[in-house]
Design brief:
Elements: E1 10-19, E2 23-33, E3 38-42, H1 49-56, E4 64-69, E5 72-73, H2 79-86, E6 89-92, H3 104-113, H4 119-132, H5 148-159, E7 166-170, H6 178-193, E8 197-202, H7 205-211, E9 214-219, E10 222-227, H8 243-256, H9 264-282, H10 284-292, H11 298-302, H12 306-311, H13 316-332
Parallel strand pairs: 3-8, 3-9, 6-7, 7-8
Antiparallel strand pairs: 1-2, 1-4, 4-5, 9-10
Helix pairs in contact: 3-4, 3-5, 9-10, 9-13
The chain binds adenosine-5'-diphosphate (ADP).
């Protein structure tokens, strides 16, 4: 690559995804998204739009091709770093995934709490996010008490909690009238104006026409057009350390921990029991399964892909539990 050429934030290179049963969801698609861009992904139902998100967050693996997020090869991110990686992405899913028993404020705070921030920082950031999505006056309400547009705005605020480099919204205007849809789009446009790369999946041709942004059009798993490329805004990328730089810092500090004082064999022994004890506290059934499968060492678990674990009978909830334990385990170290 030319030295002056900017590293794309997303790079799909001849990516295909065939689901079990032979369903071709994506068929050799290639595209790049620059930092700071605003782009739409459009196409009929079943075209493969959501599959792009699933591959990008490594919820699914591609059958073929390469996916990069900045300089990171997404398909080979180890399990232990998946949650760190996903914090770089703010995703607003179609079903929003708001927690019904929590208020608007608590839904946003929840996303901040899992990153171990201090209370005053959590409160400050929550107020800031509520302000961005015009929900300050509705912070005490529960999701059921909100309109469709307001719910969507809570989900956007929550997706922004970790200051993601990329915000992806899946059908954010799906069930909204024009006024509410316009409000959502103007919030997303403002977020993009502050430097965050934004990608919107939509069916709404009216919105796409009015916004005059880049449009990637999918049909039956093929990228059939990529228009408005010349309109790339590419605002100046904030000088944040790249993800790899942060990972490298973390890896170095992990490596340094206790290496001098503790005999390596003993350290390994300690890790086995620490890890399994942590799992046992969280979920006894999962603990038994791991023992049965001789996955008694955190590194062995981290070497397994989701697919391999699922083949061994681990369910989605087990994988989520495991991810939590692993994350806490590394945070505690
Ligand atoms: P879109 O978001 O454009 O509606 P999707 O990416 O959800 O499309 O789906 C693309 C194709 O892949 C569809 O034919 C869909 O039925 C199929 N598909 C999606 N997820 C799965 C899955 N987990 N297993 C099998 N087929 C799937």
């Amino acid at each position: 690559m030319d030295k002056n050429e900017k590293l794309p934030i997303i790079n799909f290179e001849t990516v295909s995804k065939v689901y079990p049963g032979g369903i071709v969801a994506l068929n050799e698609i290639s595209f790049k998204v620059d930092p700071g861009e605003f782009s739409f992904i459009v196409g009929p139902s079943g075209a493969g739009k959501s599959t792009i998100i699933r591959l990008l967050i490594k919820q699914e693996q591609p059958t073929d091709g390469l996916i990069h997020f900045e300089d990171l090869n997404v398909t080979s991110i180890p399990r232990k770093l998946l949650s760190l990686y996903r914090q770089q992405l703010g995703i607003v899913f179609q079903d929003l995934k708001l927690i019904p028993s929590k208020t608007v404020r608590e839904n946003i705070q929840f996303a901040l709490e899992i990153t171990n921030r201090r209370n005053h920082e959590i409160n400050e950031t929550t107020n800031y996010l509520l302000d961005i999505v015009n929900l300050k006056g509705r912070a005490h309400l529960f999701p059921d008490e909100l309109s469709g547009g307001e719910k969507q705005r809570v989900a956007i605020a929550r997706a922004l909690a970790n200051d993601p480099k990329l915000l992806i919204a899946d059908e954010p205007t799906g069930n909204l009238d024009q006024e509410n849809a316009e409000e959502i789009m103007s919030i997303l446009d403002a977020i993009n104006g502050w430097g965050t790369t934004v990608m919107v999946i939509t069916h709404d041709n009216g919105i796409v026409d009015r916004m005059k942004k880049r449009v990637l059009r999918l049909n039956q798993g093929k990228l059939v057009s990529d228009e408005g490329n010349g309109m790339r805004k590419a605002s100046e990328e904030k000088k944040k350390p790249t993800f790899l730089q942060r990972l490298n810092e973390k890896a170095t500090s992990d490596d340094d921990s206790n290496d001098v004082e503790i005999d390596p064999d003993k350290k390994h022994e300690a890790e086995i029991s620490d890890f399994l004890q942590a799992v046992k506290k969280q979920d006894k059934k999962l603990y038994k399964m791991l023992r049965h499968d001789k996955l008694d060492d955190i590194e062995k678990v981290l070497d397994m892909t989701d697919e391999e674990l699922k083949k061994k009978g681990y369910k989605e909830k087990h994988l989520e539990e495991l991810e939590k334990v692993v994350k806490n385990y590394y945070n505690d170290k």
